Amino acid sequence: MTVTWEESGWEQVAPGVGRCRLPVWDCTAGLVVGTDAVLLVDAGSSLAEGARLRAEAQELTGRRVTHLALTHLHFDHVLGAAAFAGAEVFGAVGTDTALAGRGREELRADAVRHGLDARAAEEAVDALVRPRHTVCGERTLDLDLGGGRQVLLANVGPGHTAHDLAVLVPGDPEVVFCGDLVEESGEPQAGPDAVPSHWPAALDRLLELGGEDARYVPGHGAVVDAAFVRAQRDALAARFGVSR
């Protein structure tokens, strides 16, 4: 790496794994560094924010981002994606069709409704490409051709949206990027595209993936532990009247 995590303003979560909290919407972006490839988890809220993430990742690793995983299709997580030309883009199955036609207009309108400049929203949506690789179940990415660093992409939804993807980075500790299935800085947001009846089960799946000792990186807020995820699971079940 050309700079350290601390110098870059990113938080190191585990060896070769970091995250940053972006301004305005406090959205998390994650970075996983392999010997042969670099994975970014979520791309920010605009082309400008995506370009910032691209430059910071390059400064940290000395290489370009080769893989991009989108945890779900909300504007603050995906509208920077077009800044990563040449990257292999992954999403949960269904994200490719969800970004066709009316879905793109809904994404633009949601961004503007939440305060993104209308021109910035339109430019980002116009440039946004659908994920080339969709995950049904689980998929392993090799970030080291020698097999030293593998990352698991898991389609754990629906829950926060109809298409929720989690990213598990094995190691000591294991790290789980949760997207907005988990939020620490406020109550989890359940918009019109949420599937409340399945959300607690999605959190059960996250806990199965990571286990008790993992570090769980929420879509918004500070890194949490398994006890926090379990408590949020129980609170969501009570909130939506979902039994085990």
pLDDT average, as an integer? 95
Q: What is the CATH superfamily label?
A: Ribonuclease Z/Hydroxyacylglutathione hydrolase-like
Strands of the widest sheet, in order across it, are: 1-2-3-4-5-6-7
Helix content: 25-40%
Q: What CATH architecture do you see?
A: 4-Layer Sandwich
Number of strands: 12
Strand content: 25-35%
User: What is the CATH class?
Assistant: Alpha Beta
Shape summary: globular
Query: What is the structural class?
Result: alpha/beta
**What would you report as the Rg, rounded to the nearest angstrom?**
17 Å
Largest sheet descriptor: 7 strands, mixed
The CATH topology annotation reads as Metallo-beta-lactamase, Chain A
Taking the alpha carbons of the first and last residues, their distance comes to 45 Å
Low-confidence blocks of residues: none
Task: Please work out how many helical segments DSSP would assign.
Answer: 8
Whole-number total of structural domains? 1
User: What is the ordering of alpha helices and beta strands?
Assistant: HEEEEHEHEHHHEEEEEHEH
Brief summary of the model shown:
This is Glyoxylase-like metal-dependent hydrolase (Beta-lactamase superfamily II). InterPro entries: Metallo-B-lactamas (IPR001279), NDM-1-like (IPR050855), RibonucZ/Hydroxyglut_hydro (IPR036866). 31% of the residues lie in helices and 25% in strands.
